[in-house]
Amino acid sequence: MEKIKKFVKKNQILLIAVCVCIAALTVAFFAGGNRSENKVQTASTASSLSTTNADTETTSVSATEKTTQNPTDSTKSNKDKKDRKNSEDKKNSKDNPQNSNSSAVEKSEKSEQSSSNSSSDKKKTSSSSNSSSKPNKKNDVQPTTQDKYKTDPVPSGKPKPVEPEEQETKDTNLYCTFTITCSTILDNIDDLDPEKIELVPKDGIILKKQKVQFKEGESVYDVLVKVCKDNNIHMESSWTPMYNSAYIEGINNLYEFDCGSLSGWMYKVNEWFPNYGCSRYVLKNGDDVVWCYTCNLGYDVGGGYATGE
Amino acid sequence: MKDTFSNMHPFINFIFFALTIGFTMFIMNPVCLAISFLCALVTALYLNGKKAVRLSLVFLLPMILLIVLVNPVFNHEGMTILTYFPWDNPLTLESIVYGIASAFLLSSTVLWFSSFNAVITSDKVVFLFGRIMPSLSLVISMALRFVPRFSAQMKLVRNAQHTIGRDINEGTLFQRIRNAVKILSIMITWSLENAIETADSMKSRGHGLKGRTSYSLYKFDKRDAFMLCTILFTGLVLMILLFTNAIKFRYYPSIKGDLFTVQSVIFYIFYIFLMLIPLSVNIGEGIKWKHMQSKI
To answer: Measured between beta carbons, which residues in chain B are less than 8 angstroms from residue A239?
Structure first.
């Protein structure tokens, strides 16, 4: 005991330094996990400087878009864009501030949730008039906050996201129609990786519209996996914990970024591009699912609103 | 064993390894990979003997196995679906083949570098780069010299500490740690001081000044000129063929490539020729030596 006491006394500073190091590592270990809440907070603080720089540009872009689209579309702005974060990283620099902007949005919203129940109409007018002011003010009029998987509020009348770990499948057989198409590549064939030209069908349709049987409670992702296996179509996906959904990297060996840096796979159900991942969309009987390849972040397939403002 | 190739002008050695390692690292054609791997293995065995065997068994074999196993698990691209992983992604033939190819590419590069170290010693490095970048070549040679010198000095210090009863094997655990830290601190002080001393003494001798020459044993003779021409010509032919896509081969999304066209066969022949230069020089010299002996 004596010796230990002596040792401790002698090397006090060293021991304290070691303890501090271990503590810092522990904090970093737990804080650095995949939990989206933490990430948002740290990201927003870190990027608060850069956000202000991009203020004017971001807001003006959103304003112009809102005039072209109907109000419901513009409300679901930030959501599925997160799902496509990969493709956004490669996008031009304009998008990065946008991303950080949206995380700053969430933070400030939490602090000032007072004026949250305004209608989407009101939002439209005020946000376009706000286009020259700070983005923080814009948040005041956003109706609700993002959920814990960074999904913006779903427009009324559209199904809410269901977490795949809570969803149970039943034995009831239901039917939906399923299509996989990459016809946008035909318009941008010059951008396509030359090794992959042979993979694109002449009419651009990888899987013709067909009736597919599925069990009640299955998500779009489950059905896609089954359909691809049944038809021997190649498909690669990766689980993304931050959005609690699978991300479809490539179908039929046509991958994201294969046709320009803004390309990738998107899905629409009954002509609506959901703003959340395909593992969280539970299908209903008679739904019409289309997987389409976009070469321009969804704008060329009519789903630009799902990837960002 | 005699190593005539190492006795050639350092510039020849350097050019040879630059070309060989460059080609090895950038060509994924399976035939070229096989050629490069076999040539690298044979050359390393000839130059390093037992050390090369140990390197390939202890380090390269596990590395090859690891890459071959890991690539299909993380890479799912490819048209030929063999089966599905439990996480719904396909296991494809292409990813397996690509894993094997990249494993061999990496291991042949490592083998070539082991031969590189045997042939191009630190004095050759200083000779090659001493005039172009004197301080850098001094640093390189000092760094190469550092490890053996450090361990020798460490032995000295440990012996000296041992005589006053402060070796790292004596006393309680804490005392041992303290002794070890003490020895380490002595060593660090010594190495820093030593590096500054070396640099100062080199400076006082005028290392790197204009007009200073350095003594070297290397002469560029007729044999070297012939060898340089051969290597450069082979390299040029290979470059031209490479840029005309003679050996084009792709792995994704489907394995495709004509391995045995006329152009590619010419490429393979030149490739084998280039990669076997050190070995054939050495063996040829050995035969010549024996032949002359028997004549006398």
So the answer is: 87
